[in-house]
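Amino acid chain
________________
===
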Amino acid sequence: MKATENILKKSLSGKRITENKALTLLKEGKLIQLGEAANELRKKFHHEGIVTFVIDRNINYTNICESKCKFCAFYREKTDPDAYVLDKDEIFSKIDEALELGGTQIMLQGGLNPDLKIDYYTDLLSAIKSNYKIHIHSFSPPEIAHISKNSGLSLRETLSELKKAGLDSLPGGGAEILVDHIRHQISPNKIGAELWLKVMEEAHNVGLRATATMMMGSLETLEERISHLSKLRALQDKTGVFRAFIPWTFQPGHTELGGEKTTGVEYLKMLSVSRIFLDNFEHVQGSWLTQGKKIGQIALHFGANDLGSIMIEENVVASTGVCYKMSKDQIINMINKAGFIPAQRNTKYEILETFS
């Protein structure tokens, strides 16, 4: 207990903690002790007591994927009867619905479809920007790497072309755990940790911002979770590319990997240590989508200052059998009842409207 108290005292004084210290917190820290420290550090970034959310829509433009990750229940083979690639009219219809609900952002995410080269993506982005005024926060690093390889372009050329066509920022999907021997077990056909980080560095180099994620609770150890955080912190030191960190929990339902769900206590401890360790991340998001609304609400007292999207549409997590939904009024009420001021934001974390 004395060791964790000293580490937390150091962190609260503004000093950076090491990987070993963070691991000690995860292994020996008490839940409430970690939560109190993370909450104090949240206040240093967000002293006004505002908790934000965004209204956006996830548009999964294809479920055909050659990666075939063992933790995924969403992907399909090209020959499967329910395999699809959405056409522009279908995507435009989804954008129309999002705008009607006050959406300010769309997230295009899909499988690594071998038939789609860069022209598909640039044509789609250009068409969206020609018809809509909306932020396009889309294409995770595995998708970018796939487009690059499939199109015979470098990562920087790929990102430059996508940006020119209308891409505004990148989501942090596909990170899972940035430790290759774990990645080889759960997603053997997906890019390695080094390439994931390289995509994000190149995104910074062409003037794009991004978010960072972590999927916890598959096969990784506590040490490997901290290693993941350390790699994100180092890249953030170098580039400042990340706007936010979003930890979420593996959902085993209907997946090849299977296993047990991560408990709320384990999630909250990891969330707290993430806020403490990632001292160069302004925003940390609570995951009500995978942990449920009650834990999502509690997360606001364990370091989170944002609850992400109300999720007009979400298919990947839902394919595992987990399907939490939230309306704008519900998320406002949830934030209020947790003792915070709710505010709708845009992708850049600019406040659009606050609610009493």
